[in-house]
User: Fold this.
Amino acid sequence: MMRALLLFAGAIFLSACATDRTEQRARDRAALAPTEKPRTISDKPVSSSSRRRGHTCADQTWRGVFVAKPQTFDVRPDLKIGGRQIRPVVYGPLAGDFGKVYAFYELQGRCVTRALTLGSYERTTQFARSSGHIAPDARRYHTDLYVPNAHHTLGFYDDKPTYEEMLDLARRVFD
Assistant:
């Protein structure tokens, strides 16, 4: 009887977890809805038939980093760094509250496992301006490293790093 009760409680717990994941996925889809066509960094969406065949990526708490609304982006040719496949992305002019400049995505097959980004967020820039750390017309830039289910800010910059400087940082991070 006790074993049956424990199995029943476990089934309820797993059902609740599945419901939470389903609700989270629905919220994620709603967040993507304003875009014309949801795209992955590879610009090849994973089809539902691919998902049925088991071609899925692990859910990450930071997966919203891939949505560069309302910015445009240019995917550069892949690089090999430390034996890893790295996909560089150069974003268009800063736009929105969470603008990105460059990103380097570590891929395993079609799945992003880590990401290194250079961004300039409006709120961070406003704080730096109001506190006198940068000029009233300047921007504050920062680098972030996204690893499975975590995010780390690596540093802040008063001047925008060049693509070459970010590529050097990517080599150190991914090597």
The first helix runs from residue 2 to 32.
